[in-house]
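Reminder to self: keep the SMILES exactly as supplied, no canonicalising. Ligand is NAP.
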Amino acid sequence: MRYLITGGSGQLGSAIYKELLLRGENDVFTPSSKEMDITNFSSVKNYITLVKPDIIFHCAAYTNVDEAEFDHDSCYMANSLGTGHICNAAGLVDATVIGISSDYVFDGKKESPYEVYDERHPINFYGSTKKEMEDILTRYPKYFVVRTSWVFGENGKNFVNTMLNLAKRHDEVDVVRDQIGSPSYTPDLARGIVDLSNTDYYGFYHMTNEGYLSWYKFANLIYKEAGIDIKVNPINAKDYNGAKALRPENSMLSKFSLDQAGITRLPSVEEATHNYIKILKK
Ligand SMILES: NC(=O)c1ccc[n+]([C@@H]2O[C@H](COP(=O)([O-])OP(=O)(O)OC[C@H]3O[C@@H](n4cnc5c(N)ncnc54)[C@H](OP(=O)(O)O)[C@@H]3O)[C@@H](O)[C@H]2O)c1
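Structure tokens returned for the bound complex:
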């Protein structure tokens, strides 16, 4: 099999690359954004028709949720238009496309975990481009949409790194207590996504580590695992000045669809956090 990973330098793309190599796959292509710019159809078409992948893990995206509120064009071009380019070029070589979407397609008003079929009402611009990305994927015959949330791992910016860096400069930190969801560790996600790609159960999936918690509780878990003694103050999202984009209060994603496809759920948030911090300590 031949694989193409977009966004191979990012958190998730680099973990999928590692997972494929671990499974003994050698034909794995990870073009940089210069080699294949997803916002440019000629660039995408030339690369995809040259390497002729069987499976495309589409991880490239505009991921700065707050900046997206002010830079609509860039976010739309990468997330929506870019996904269209990937699907159009994938059709020329009959490749399967696995697109990575987000809990931010939901408004967070539901009181229980979101199912894949729940109605989407994004409350920030990034989320609206992810919704459009999903719609584009559904018009392509061999598609998977994997919604995930609160991604952390090597090769990128994430909440765990931010908390650890804050602890170097501060004795206490304020962390939001009224947004609930699930963190997702990239090696665990990569395993689940590659498992899914080996099936032809096309459609929508939710994939995160197991367990739901607030950012506040996640921060406490991170510091406990890292052995850092710091005061964590719970605050409400409305009192946090750092975010320009609104975020859903409820980001809980149900794994019902994963169970139906026979894909093993990801390990617990506690185990994932432990494993990541162990790597950082090395
Ligand atoms: N991070 C999260 O918490 C989170 C939550 C839910 C869903 N997701 C989704 O999960 C996927 C992976 O996220 P991530 O955190 O791994 O992202 P990331 O670390 O921010 O990496 C983004 C990747 O996209 C590439 N990229 C951006 N613009 C591009 C362009 N025009 N052409 C080609 N490549 C381009 C970047 O390459 P360069 O470095 O060369 O620009 C980078 O490799 C994304 O679809 C994201 O929306 C993420």
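Points to follow up:
The longest helix spans residues 72-93.
The mean pLDDT is 97.
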